[in-house]
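Hi U.,

Before I forget, here's the chain from the pilot set. I'm dumping it here mostly so it's searchable later in email.
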Amino acid sequence: MWKTSWKLAAAFVLVSVFAVIDEVRHFYHPYRTGLWQDIVLDITGGLYGILSYYFLEKTEKKKNKATWTL
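Structure:
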């Protein structure tokens, strides 16, 4: 469980850092705007993806465990 928690936390931190860096980069581009709302949207999408992966993985493990149990 702890290994999974660290992996999920690391993925969330990486998504958050990437979202901030991407918006800062947009801020300095002359034809783009860097908005804090885009950062929130990117982080929300990343969190949705991370949690979806977690729950799908958990479901698959239950399914495989039930299949192999005698």
